[in-house]
Structures are given as structure tokens and as C-alpha cells.
Amino acid sequence: MKGIILVLLLCACGRGASTAATQDSPPAPAAPHQSAPPDGGAATLQQMPVPEPHVLTGAEVPAAPQPALTCGIAPETPAVRHLGPCTAVGFLARDQSDPYLTRATNLWSSGQLVDATQEIWGNYPSVPRTDYLRTSQHQIHDANGRLFETVGARDYFQSPESMYSESTRTVVDYACDAAGKLASSTTRGRSRNPDSTPETYPENSWEGSTFFVDARGTVFTKTKFPLAGGPFWLQDGVFTVYPDGMVRTATITSVQNGGAYLRTVDTTSYDESRLVLEHDTTAFDRFGYPSTTTVTYNYSAGLIANVFTVTSYEKPSTSVYKYDAAGNNFERVTTNADGSLKSTWTGVYDRGGNLVCESTTNANGELLNIVHYDYGCF
């Protein structure tokens, strides 16, 4: 299963932010760093222990939502632009017989996303099998509003083979440099499966990370490395900058060996205004065979005009963006190199320019995915 709706981002030792991920969108930058004096703002906070994991039972799995399979018209709401949605409920057709149902729930406070929960329900009648995945993150800030810790949870339940169910809890501790910028983090964690006791997997340090911050204050993860008790994962970043210190290219090389070896080289290029120009990814399997993807973004008046995608496993495609008078992207038509239709994305917005529904259909007009967004908590 893959989380597909909302991603909780980190921003320096400043405030957290969120982004809604939509098809053909360029990689979203982290939020700008909001500097604060490197004083004792965190002195009153103590690192919390990693919470005890809890393996879900079938009775604890919530009922799946049933989203409408059409977008309809936008609701009559005040013309107010919100930071992000409160909930997002969606349908994802992995294929026509085994769809996923999704829900994201977000809690906002003082202009920050402080809690984010994502849920995915899977149903596989041909096996037969069902499963459920819930992930969540909670941010803790110090007295200066700087990110101090992130508490994470991941719970997976599978039926009828419940022996594959598992539960994980993590706490990420952040450290800043003398200028108050995010410098490093340490992830502590513990996990359980249905047969383990609380003593089986005690708290351990799982992973360490370091960060690169450009002149704008945008944060990039530079390195990741495993610590005792953690999964095997390595990452190393190389960055180039413009004369003013703004990031120009970010190249991330990562290696993971959790179940299957995979090495990935990911390069993103930016212009001087921070727009993404190109995103190149090459993934190597354990035999060294590469799989490549290159996504090129073209702009008009600061808005994406079209996106050209070339992969080693599909025909090249071009997505053309259309906007309304308010600058809202309401359509993306993707065609193959021969001009044949591949897919159509549509978006519906309220009067404040908030995306309230998005959907994608294939060349035959069959629904591939749909997500409904709600902003009622504001």
C-alpha cells in the first residue's frame, strides 16, 4: 500500500507545513525556514519515550469511507483560501477489481499542520484478502515555534492472515545549528507483531539524518544512515547552488535493502525562482538493471503549461494544463507520443481557490481515482 493523499513536510527548525500531492505536480519544496534565536526555547521540553506499539485486531479496524464517484459542483463557501484540507476521502483503482479507499485527516493549529493521519483500505476478492494501513504524525514545537519532535505511528492489519499484521511507533528528535537552522535528526523506534511481547522489541535508535538548507531556508535531507536496531537505508545528497545561494540541483542517491535491494539516483533541477525544471530518477535493481524516468516542466507566466514524461517502461507522454480566470488548474490532458489519449485529470475549486475534488479517468473514460477535500474545520 502507498500513502497517496497528504504528506507531512518538515521545515528547518521553524514551522511545519503540508502539501496536497496531485498527479503531474512537480516535487513540492519544503516550507521556508523561519529563523528563531538559538536560545533555550527547547530547554523546557524533554524527549519523550517511544510509545508502545499496539497491533490492531479486526474489531478495531474502522469502516471504510464510501466517497462519491463523481466530483459534482463546488459548494457555496466564502472566498477564503485555506492552508490545506481538513479531510480528504478518495477512491483509487489499483485495477478495476481491487480498488483502494483512502482517507486523510489533518489537524491545524496557529497556521501549522500539527497532526496528519492517512488510512488506506484494500479489498482483494480474488485472493480473498482485505487489509488496512494507518499512518500518523504528530509534531511537537518548542517555545519559539521550532520543530522539536515528530511522533509517528504505523499500523497494518491483514485478514485472514493476521500473522502479517504489525505495529510501529517512532519519535524523531531534531537538532539545530548555532544559526537556528535544522542540522540533524535521530529516529528512535519500536515495533510489534501479533506474537511479540512488549519486551521483544524495546526502544532503539533506528536512523540518523543530516540536512542541507539553502539561502531561502528550504530544507533538503542530505544523508540518512541506519543505527542499531533500525532498517538498512542509506542516503547521500549532493547540492549545487546559484550565486545567491539558492539551490540549483539536488541529487539524492539512496540504497535500501529491506526485503529487496534497490539503489535510486534522483536529481531535481530548479530555476532561480525555485520552480522545478526537471526531475530525473534512475532505479537499479539487485542485478544492476536500470529503470529511468525523466519529467520536464514547462511554464507560462509562472504556471505549469505542460509536462513531458519519458520512462524506460512506457511510451513518452505529454500533459497539457488548463487554467480558469482565477489561475486554478482545472484540467490536465495527457496524450501519448502518437497523439492518442492516455488520461484526463480534472479539478473542482471553491470560491476561495481551494481544491474540493480531483479525479482522473483513463482513455476509455473509466475512473482511475477520485479525491474529495473538505475544509470544514476552519
Which short descriptors sum up this protein?
single chain, 378 residues, 20-stranded antiparallel barrel, two-stranded antiparallel sheet, 22 strands, 0% helix, globular, disordered N terminus
Task: Briefly characterize the structure.
This protein is mainly beta and 378 residues long. It has strands at 6-9, 17-20, 87-93, 99-109, 112-124, 129-141, 147-159, 166-176, 182-192, 204-213, 219-226, 233-241, 247-256, 262-270, 276-284, 290-300, 303-311, 317-323, 329-336, 341-349, 355-362, 367-374.
Helix run count: 0
**Share in helix:** under 10%
- Report on the biggest sheet: 20 strands, antiparallel, barrel
pLDDT < 50 stretches: 1-12, 14-23, 27-40
> Averaged pLDDT, please?
87
Which structural class fits the helix and strand makeup?
Answer: mainly beta
Secondary-structure element order, as H and E? EEEEEEEEEEEEEEEEEEEEEE
How many domains would you count in the coordinates?
Answer: 1
Radius of gyration equals: 22 Å
Shape descriptor:
globular
What's the number of extended β-strand segments? Answer: 22
